[in-house]
Write a structure and sequence with these properties.
The protein contains five helices and no strands. By secondary structure, the chain is mostly helical. The protein folds into two domains: 50 residues, no CATH class; 37 residues.
Length: 89
């Protein structure tokens, strides 16, 4: 049944939650237009909502680690640019 609902959702753009419960937004486009989310953000939210709780926790942990890496990388780039500007690199 789950696979059948996923197929219906993929072909029609109707949320699986709406198919099961009749609650919430029916179509993906309605969540984008009513919430101000971009298509990409709505897609991420839909993927997140389809994950089990364990995978949701893992995804959040991984994303936080990715943010930390990105911030560290930015700090290193800024430090290198400062050195280059001062001629000490």
């Amino acid at each position: 049944m789950a696979e059948h609902l996923k197929n219906i959702s993929a072909k029609t753009g109707i949320f699986i939650d709406w198919l099961l419960t009749g609650k919430g937004p029916m179509h993906q486009n309605s969540i984008v237009s009513s919430s101000g989310l971009t298509e990409e953000e709505a897609t991420l939210l839909e993927i997140y909502n389809d994950l089990s709780d364990d995978y949701k926790d893992e995804l959040i942990t991984s994303l936080k680690a990715l943010i930390d890496l990105d911030q560290d990388s930015k700090k290193k780039r800024v430090a290198l640019l400062e050195k280059l500007r001062k001629g000490t690199a």
